[in-house]
From TrEMBL:
This is FAD dependent oxidoreductase domain-containing protein. It comes from the Eukaryota. InterPro entries: D-amino_acid_oxidase_CS (IPR006181), DAO (IPR023209), FAD-dep_OxRdtase (IPR006076). Signal peptide: none annotated. Residues 12-270 form the FAD dependent oxidoreductase domain. GO terms for molecular function: D-amino-acid oxidase activity; FAD binding. It comes from Anopheles epiroticus. Keywords: FAD, Flavoprotein, Oxidoreductase. Belongs to the DAMOX/DASOX family. One of its GO terms (biological process) is D-amino acid catabolic process. One of its GO terms (cellular component) is cytoplasm. Its cofactor is FAD.
């Protein structure tokens, strides 16, 4: 059974996550960790709601309406727009850096195959389940579905500003090239690069920023975002043949994993402490 307790709102998780990324950005590790400031625009010709994000607006240093002149920065009949400054985290840099820090602080990485979480009973005081899409099988969680995404990384060093637009179109400059995207294919398990998606992404991004035409491709990537409504961050007491196992679940972030991960991790740590206290009373 899952523990009943008050769960923080998504806004709290995003706020805590932003504070974490911002603190890291200010340290000497920021370059190695792939964390830096980034500014950009989001445009829409369809709906003003597309250019607003009420959670993000409350935490980033700048989030304002685009001026009439800024609406003409990119080709298109843009009616609505916003300008923002936020934090970029390059996961291909951050994850190895974070793993190194974990090991340096005494952590261990052990790779095993599991059929279910109950197999861990007796080996650990508390298990934190961050298995992403794997939780669908491990937890028999039918609320968890993949949302397929595809991006193209190109060499375009002249692009220093991010641009977002209708139809999940985005151009994000980074430390290792510029990311062009994207797509959101609900309940798709296809991990192969689709040439049709590639062509659509290039067409939309080059229409938004014509200077990208001819930019050489560095790589193309496909990923499955583990989407769950709501995101699952809670304690569960799993019955086993030899007692019970306390599990702290933390998965189902979908396309907002980087945006919210430090925030949900902070809350998961709180749950771990509560679980350890409960264990000590047994």
């Amino acid at each position: 059974m899952a523990a009943e307790m008050e769960t923080p709102s998504g806004g709290k998780w995003i706020s805590d996550a932003y504070s974490h990324w911002d603190e890291l950005r200010r340290t000497e590790y920021s370059a190695r960790a792939g964390v830096c400031l980034m500014s950009g625009y989001i445009f829409s010709s369809r709906d003003p709601a597309i250019v607003r994000n009420h959670y993000i607006e409350k935490v980033v240093p700048v989030y304002r309406a685009a001026t009439e002149q800024e609406l003409h920065l990119c080709p298109g009949e843009w009616k609505y727009g916003s300008f923002f400054t936020t934090i970029l985290a390059e996961c291909r840099l951050f994850q190895p850096w974070a793993a190194e820090r974990f090991l340096d602080n005494g952590g261990r990485i052990v790779t095993v195959a599991l059929n279910n979480l109950q197999e861990l009973r007796g080996k650990y005081d508390v298990v934190v389940n961050c298995t992403g899409l794997g939780a669908k099988r491990l937890c028999n969680d039918h609320k968890l579905v993949p949302i397929r995404g595809q991006v193209i990384k190109v060499r375009a060093s002249w692009v220093k500003t991010a641009f977002y637009a209708d139809f999940d179109t985005y151009i994000i400059p980074g430390m290792e090239g510029v990311t062009l995207g994207g797509c959101r294919n609900f309940d798709s398990y296809n991990t192969e690069v689709s040439r049709h998606d590639s062509a659509a992404i290039r067409e939309r991004c080059e229409s938004l920023l014509p200077s990208l035409k001819g930019a050489p491709v560095l790589r193309e990537s496909v990923g499955l975002r583990p989407h769950r409504d709501p995101v699952r961050v809670e304690i569960e007491l799993l019955p086993t043949a030899n007692g019970s196992l306390r599990v702290v679940h933390n998965y189902g972030h979908g396309g907002y994993g980087v945006t919210t991960a430090p925030g949900t991790a902070k809350y998961a740590v709180k749950l771990v402490r509560e679980a350890l206290q409960a264990n000590s009373k047994l």
